[in-house]
């Protein structure tokens, strides 16, 4: 299990330009390192043997060593969950496809967007580039 | 003007894994270098002073020297057109935002998708990350 978490410099020096205003002096940015916004939600824990990767952009591959870690471990097949579908999930998925990971799977009901319409539109586009999008139950049964 | 064109090795050695079957022996892949599929549509011409960049993945930034070319020229502001909205356009746009280009503009009616719904859903997601999406006319008038 590889956990990808967004954490930013409290002064915002590694934040996207379009979000930098959220990290100006006196503010605690939405996912500033060490702040509540950077904590995992209840129920998610980085356990012994898990790998925690910190990123600062939507795609987990963007300016991180994720690709080299996966290659080193001989991993070609990815199953992706999390939020939100249009941003972090989709950008990670499209980069994974561009990097020739196969199969790339997104668990339909283990990711979400601001509205169901946004979620569905993004799932549709991902299916169109060969991504599998089973529900958690369908995927679990296929592994049984 | 920078023209980004997809061209692939006729043997498919630089094609995404999920499309490799389109480039097997005896087939002419959809955008094989030198084939009709790699030509520009009527009306588009690479003119003197334009820059032609060849890419092999959705994003024009993926494994190309686009970022270094733009940085060298001191270009921070991008206006993006072409097809299709969900794939090449969107992936290029999201990478441009991740790379802190600003402003990033997509001309609403100078890009397109398989259906109007797909186009609109992708424009919606791009607006949500701060991308401007004027029509060609609106943009032209703002430059006048």
TrEMBL record, chains A, B:
Pfam families attached to this UniProt entry: Isochorismatase
Gene3D superfamilies from the UniProt entry: Isochorismatase-like
Signal peptide coordinates: none
InterPro entries for this protein: Isochorismatase-like_dom (IPR000868), Isochorismatase-like_sf (IPR036380)
Residue ranges of every copy of the Isochorismatase-like domain listed in the record: 20-133
CDD domains: cysteine_hydrolases (cd00431)
Family recorded in the similarity comment: Belongs to the isochorismatase family.
Protein name: Isochorismatase-like domain-containing protein
Annotated source species: Pisum sativum (Garden pea)
